[in-house]
Amino acid sequence: MAKQLIECVPNISEGRDPIKIKEIAHVVETVEGVKLLDIDPGKATNRTVITFVGQPESVIEAAFRLIKKASELIDMSKHAGEHPRFGATDVCPLVPISGITLDETALYAHKLGERVGKELGIPGYFYENAAKFEVRKNLANCRAGEYEGLSKKLDDKEWKPDFGPATFNKNVVKTGAIAISARDFLIAYNVNLNTTSTRRANSIAFDIREAGRVKRDGNPITGKKVLDTNGDVVRIPGKLKAVKGIGWYIEEYGIAQISYNLTNISITSMHEAFDESCKAALKRGLRVTGSELVGLVPLKAMLDAADFYLAKQKRSLGIAISEKIKIAIKSLGLDDLKPFNPNEKIIEYLLETDQSKLVNLRLDAFADETAGESPAPGGGSIAAYVGALGVSLGTMVANLSAHKAGWDDRWEFYSKWAEKGQLYKNKLLFLVDEDTIAFNKIIEGFRMPKSTDKEKELRKESIEQATKYATEIPFKVMETAYESMEVMLAMAKEGLQSSLSDAGVGALCARTAVIGAYFNVRINAKDIKDRSFANTILSKAKKLYDRTVAKEKEIIAYIDDNM
After folding, report:
1. N or C: which end of the chain has fewer CB within 10 A?
2. If you average pLDDT over every residue of the chain, what do you get?
3. Catalytic choice (83, 110, 184, 335)
């Protein structure tokens, strides 16, 4: 069962005092198992977005400590800023990352809220997926009136808090209220304009956001609001779903921005919001100069943006992830206002804790590690790496062909082959380290105690399972390297003929990977006690070996005939 991980993204009403911000944010690190990922302050908004991740119980403990510390250091009666707010810790959403559902996350949101109300005396509301009333699902409803209207709101029976006191007492005057939720991953995303006009930024926000704008008779700005038969205001919906947005002026940058919340990036992506904002701005005589990401972003959102702009340029989508990140940054203008560091802004990169991977070593360091006294990395890891190099060459030919002048009508054909090649390459690179990990599991088994019969039995079983796994990994290398040969064959026949030799070398590398991994399957399988398992995998491996030799001959024959 996968480890349960949730992310917490509290927004505190302090963005100007670095000492307070640091003290509030770093309190989460006093909880074991919680990783602080990001601290993103904004001077104009006087608000800081903090992001941390961990297992549910640890995260809600850390969130409680942060909310407590914020209530001690922030006085809401003295707060002012551009962003809507009503509390020292204004919002505290919990986001499921892995191994946990949104409904399960909502239960943790309720647990956190109840504790905040009882122990800290802070009133609050549950919103989005943690909401207990339909009208409270929307954060804007919960926060309506902001801090200045909180006294009146707490007196309203319709808006009795979900937790905490329903009175604007001395403590609440200082802390304000809080909104706690469970929600899907939300991207806080600002689009920069070449204007200082908040009104014009708002007009674009109204064009784009799902809620749109109020419908009016006559003048669209000053005309009388149109009401429906129930007396409710009629709205003209905006262009994009799952988008909230307002315009504001940011003094520290001297520009107006459209501030978006992208509440479901599978419905509306970051690049769609950016692209539509560009179109709406041009219609109004304005220009988008770039954008700003507040907090963190999933890797997929960046890769989707890169693919969107690559496709617009009729460029191959089968390029390295690192190159795609660069394209996404430049295409969205994420470095317009300040440098954008992917290692600090992409959540998967921040969660990467293992810095000792073989594939992260320099080429000379990898060779040195292989040549050392340790038996790992051994033949299995090297076979996987050779296979990765082979399909990388095939992928290179596909990308060169996609970019060739005069071949623009075939760019999608080559892009699809390059994308396939990248998938094979990434799988083989994963297997480089996995083969060494599998070997080390066997060593760990042999080091287990064997003083009693029970210990001997556990040791024996551990060695058996580890040996099976150490046989399955090189078999996966065989499968992947063999399958990757389709890229080299296709590029030998359809790609740039000046790169025929590159496709050939790629095929030879793939063949070497298969045969090398086959040796590892055989040598590991001989130690497996379960001979039925061993014989089955050996039979499959032999067939793969034979098919690889035949495929290599086909590719080499074609190259010999056409070179």
Report:
1. N
2. 95
3. 83
